Amino acid sequence: MNSKAGGLETKRVLRTCFTPDECFNGSLNLGFSQAVINTMCCTSDLCNSQDVPDWSISSPNGKKCFQCDEKDCTKTLTCNGNEDYCISAAVKAGVTTTKVKGCASKTICSHSATEQLSAVIGGEISCCQGDLCNRASSTTAHLLLFVAPLISLVFFS
């Protein structure tokens, strides 16, 4: 998994066993933070020695979603590559709940992925299709810069 938050890029490689529904590629872009999950899955013993391809930022695809910037969730974000859904989530950290919005790929919005992610962030996740379908609203909490690395904990723990 590759993630980028606040200009800092990280790459996390994990070699382990997954169920077939945990083996997918996808991306999440919240504007201030991005995560790309690249997996290579195989079915024979000790077959996971190869590295996954490096992360490359895809070109804009024309889709637009709302994103949150501090307390303002009315800013728009241009989605990239396979990010064909808009996403909204409520992330709980202690007693604070922060709203995050952005672009996501279909695989991030799949039922099994959102169930896993919801369990870790302690909040609700919803996805929709169509430009700016993740309606804008304001929030009183500050954005959490750990959302993208948190996703790596969900999928690679």
UniProtKB/TrEMBL annotation:
Question: SUPFAM superfamilies, from UniProt?
Answer: Snake toxin-like
The listed locations are: Secreted
Q: Does the keyword Secreted apply?
A: yes
* Principal place of residence: secreted
* Record has Oxidoreductase as a keyword: no
Q: Which SMART domains match?
A: LU
**Keywords, comma-separated and alphabetical:** Secreted
Ranges where the UPAR/Ly6 domain occurs: 64-148
Q: Which GO terms describe its cellular component?
A: extracellular region
Superkingdom in the source lineage: Eukaryota
Question: Pfam families, from UniProt?
Answer: UPAR_LY6
Supply the name of the protein.
UPAR/Ly6 domain-containing protein
Q: Organism, per UniProt?
A: Maylandia zebra (zebra mbuna)
